UniProtKB/TrEMBL annotation:
TM region positions: none
Protein name: Cryptochrome/photolyase family protein
PANTHER family, per the entry: SLR1343 PROTEIN
Taxonomy, superkingdom: Bacteria
Coiled-coil positions: none
SUPFAM superfamilies, sorted: Cryptochrome/photolyase FAD-binding domain (SSF48173)
Species: Cognatishimia coralii
């Protein structure tokens, strides 16, 4: 008989390894210390994965499969995927292992050595739950001087005929991003997010996580997330009904006390397989055709899934393992303590860290333009930033996290993923949020102890990295402004930055 290994982010009935299962084959699922602690994942992320795994195992059993499920606390639990596979082979006399490729390079590299170590055949199948295969992305990228999401996205729109009419984009443009940058309006009403009911399985898992992972980051409760395919579908439908219409307009907006805004909060479901990308895309497209949501919202949402999600995955598998080691700016500063406890006078960072801690979620602009922007400007070591993002978000898996952090946020890849770093001063955060209204710093002040640190850190970053960035055509205006700056202003920038970094190094509350 064959042993079919299903990982915690492979909870889809159409996962290729399941397609090869015969009636007498055994499906193995296991909660293991190695996966739960290779980074110290947020407590909510572990609870989500374990509970969703247990529910998926039960649904497999009900559809007639034989499932061997190792709970975290089982006395025989060997603690790692490899050891659990080895134990199952010995117990069951399995002659072959079948697994769908994992989403992280470290695990794929390990699995490629399993056949030899285990002494049985190990088949590693391609994960077909994505909309572009490895080969397709490789073929698309090959021979291009520069790869850019926008062109890849257009091909994907054509391939799946999404918002396409007679070969061209519906509405006449491929991308409506320019309509998706509205700041929040005073008194904006944000709908309540999806909230699932806790069942006995999730309740048991919450107790387990509280007991076994007390030192991990994050608040375990309240736990609102869906843990079954049916509930994840309900969350998707609620998004389409209640939030999608304003998704585009407020995609980049941030409001204190409103962590969820008009986003979909489905990445965690997509990434473990409770939702499929094409069903999310079609649901949004249908809402457009039914007149429930405007084109800027629907196109914007679809671009994230059909464009960005597939594009970052393509880059990950194309560039790993070297991609992870790149550090274009040679950044080496330690991650500040406030990324863990939110203790900082910078209100934007405090809000984003505290929401991350509470929800294992922050929306894209919080991740990119607040948390990421600071890490970029302050020159934080990419390895430390990567580890932080990989462990704090419930939707984080390296194939999607690394290119976003390393490429989009830190420009550590020197421009493979994007054409310029997303560096911004306090003016951007002021425009797109109300964070500055209750901050100890003054966003209008450019220098001095009370000035918003993003303001002088921005110019210090551009000055520090002059040799690496001046030639970038998209930064021409920045360096023109820098060249016109008086010596007095330049000195003030570097003195403020030096003072700030010293305070950071001394673990003072900045
Ligand atoms: P929405 O804003 O509603 O977007 C819809 C969907 O589009 C998301 O669910 C997601 O599947 C997809 N999507 C949107 N933007 C991206 C993107 N840039 N890359 C890939 N998919 C995207 N996304 C993850 O799934 N896992 C991560 O670990 C992750 N880490 C990130 C780290 C940084 C520094 C940044 C800037 C972005 C990261 N993203 C990550 C992308 C994005 O921020 C999240 O997908 C999104 O915030 C999830 O919330 P949502 O489901 O409400 O998304
Ligand atoms: C994220 C995660 C966690 C916390 N725990 C498990 C686990 O115990 N067992 C398992 O099979 N998978 C888990 N996962 C998901 C894996 O880390 C994921 O499959 C790999 O990182 C590859 O994407
Ligand atoms: Fe953030 Fe600066 Fe605004 Fe304070 S003033 S919230 S630090 S951008």
């Amino acid at each position: 008989m064959k042993l079919i290994l299903i990982l915690g982010d492979q909870l889809s009935l159409n996962i290729p390894s399941l397609q090869l299962a015969s009636d007498d084959d055994v499906i193995l699922m296991c909660e293991v210390r190695s996966e739960a602690t290779y980074v110290k994942h947020h407590k909510k992320k572990i609870a989500f994965v374990f509970s969703a795994m247990r529910h998926f195992a039960e649904s497999l059993r009900q559809s007639g499969h034989i499932v061997r499920y190792t709970k975290y606390t089982d006395p025989e639990n060997a603690g790692s995927l490899y050891d659990e596979v080895a134990r199952a082979i010995a117990d069951l006399r399995a002659t072959e292992v079948i697994v769908t490729e994992p989403g992280e390079y470290r695990l794929l590299a390990e699995m490629q050595g399993w056949a030899e170590r285990l002494g049985v055949q190990v088949q590693i199948l391609e994960d077909t739950r994505f909309l572009a295969s490895h080969q397709e992305f490789k073929d698309w990228a090959q021979g291009r001087k520069q790869i850019r999401m926008e062109y890849f996205y257009r091909e994907m729109r054509r391939k799946y005929s999404v918002l396409v009419d007679h070969g061209g984009p519906i509405g006449g443009a491929w991308n409506y991003d320019s309509e998706n940058r509205s700041p929040p309006k005073e008194g904006l009403q944000v709908p309540a997010p999806f909230q699932d009911r806790l069942d006995p399985v999730t309740t048991e898992v919450l107790t387990l996580v509280a007991e076994k992972f007390p030192s991990h980051f994050g608040d375990l409760e309240p736990f609102p997330y869906a843990v079954t395919q049916a509930a994840a579908l309900e969350a998707l439908r609620q998004f389409v009904r209640e939030r999608l219409a304003l998704f585009g307009t407020y995609q980049d907006a941030m409001v204190e006390g409103e962590p969820w805004m008009f986003h979909s909060h489905i990445a965690l479901y997509l990434n473990v397989g409770l939702l499929e990308p094409l069903e999310c895309i079609r649901a949004a497209e249908q809402a457009y055709h039914d007149g429930h949501a405007p084109l800027n919202a629907v196109e914007g949402f679809i671009r994230q899934i059909l464009g960005w999600r597939e594009y970052v995955r393509g880059i990950y598998w194309l560039k790993m393992p070297a991609y992870k080691e790149e550090n274009y700016f040679g950044a080496s500063r330690a991650l500040p303590d406030f990324y863990w406890d939110g203790v900082t006078q910078m209100n934007c960072l405090r809000q984003c860290v505290l929401e991350t801690k509470q929800n294992a979620y922050a929306h894209h602009i919080q991740r990119l333009m607040v948390l990421g922007n600071f890490a970029l400007l302050a020159g934080i070591d990419p390895q430390e930033v990567n580890e932080w993002y990989l462990l704090v978000y419930a939707d984080a898996y390296e194939w999607v996290e690394l290119p976003n952090v390393h490429g989009m946020v830190l420009f550590a890849d020197g421009g493979v993923l994007g054409s310029k770093p997303y560096a911004a001063s306090g003016a951007y955060i002021k425009k797109m949020s109300n964070y500055c209204e209750s901050c100890s710093y003054k966003v209008s002040a450019k220098n001095g102890a009370k000035a918003c640190p993003f303001n002088y850190l921005y110019w210090d970053f551009m000055t520090r990295n002059d040799g690496k960035l001046r030639g970038n055509p998209r930064l021409g205006f920045v360096y023109k402004t820098l060249d016109r700056m008086s010596d007095e202003k330049r000195n003030a920038v570097s003195a403020d930055a030096a003072r700030f970094f010293t305070a950071l190094e001394n673990h003072e509350k900045v």
